Amino acid sequence: xxxxxxxxxxxxxxxxxxxxxxxxxxxxxxxxxxxxxxxxxxxxxxxxxxxxxxxxxxxxxxxxxxxxxxxxxxxxxxxxxxxxxxxxxxxxxxxxxxxxxxxxxxxxxxxxxxxxxxxxxxxxxxxxxxxxxxxxxxxxxxxxxxxxxxxxxxxxxxxxxxxxxxxxxxxxxxxxxxxxxxxxxxxxxxxxxxxxxxxxxxxxxxxxxxxxxxxxxxxxxxxxxxxxxxxxxxxxxxxxxxxxxxxxxxxxxxxxxxxxxxxxxxxxxxxxxxxxxxxxxxxxxxxxxxxxxxxxxxxxxxxxxxxxxxxxxxxxxxxxxxxxxxxxxxxxxxxxxxxxxxxxxx
Length: 346
Hints:
This protein is an alpha/beta fold. It is 28% helix and 24% strand. Strands 3, 5, 6, 7, 8, 15 and 16 form a seven-stranded mixed β-sheet that branches. Strands 11-10-9-12-13-14 form a six-stranded parallel β-sheet, with helices on both faces. Strands 2-1-4 form a three-stranded antiparallel β-sheet, with no helix packed on it. Helix 10 (276-279) links the parallel strand 13 and strand 14 (285-287). Helix 5 crosses helix 6 (178-187). The radius of gyration is 20 Å and the shape is globular. The two termini are 14 Å apart.
């Protein structure tokens, strides 16, 4: 079969690899029908995630069809169409029992495309299939569902939920890429008074407006003063960091009000300065996190009921064989206007 293989920082190739086989009785083999590329994959290619070894098949988001199951799998069966979650959960360890699946101590967590071969391939082995794959209703399309593998749960759980977004809040989302847009969409579930999107690219600010931000701002044009004026001099109730560079994290800590919350949802490859000399006296809470995907069933129900629109995230579509071109498009959003790319089996 073909797969996208990481060969070290800056190196990737769509090439022939051995088709996966069942290794554990809790495994399933899934034929990949739709897959997407994540910003985390770009961080891996930049060398920001050194735990990913050369030779690894990348990808942690997919929709596919179960072709084979291990003896201990009971929730999915061959022929089932499933969402493959970015997080694998053993279901038994201390963390899984607390729905903190991202911290699974039983061999799960974020392993696909990280510690085991991932989803950017024609077939993928899914560990802990009973707790890491979700059967899909017929009325939910592959393209719509694949956005629930990572981006929507991450923005919702690590951004909106951890930050405690509440009705009437002023929420600032720094970074209007796919993750920031997902934070904008899911923040609206809690009826904030204002959602402010901050980004350098006008095309992404335009997208933020379409996705529900009522105010957009360029960080080079006095965004701190603008947010203070909007909030009677206080600052934002919640600032969500959705870029993953030191400057945007530090901007969030400047934008937030005393007693407010900074929620970091991005992958960071470089150290960021935490100005505790300023933050401690302002009672600012800072949270980070790997998604747990406890919200995936809820989001899937909303999608099936027509209460959640994921289709607008997809700007480019490719066949699986066009993986290299899809990476080129996704990696240069300023040139291509890409938000999310989806690749499907021919």
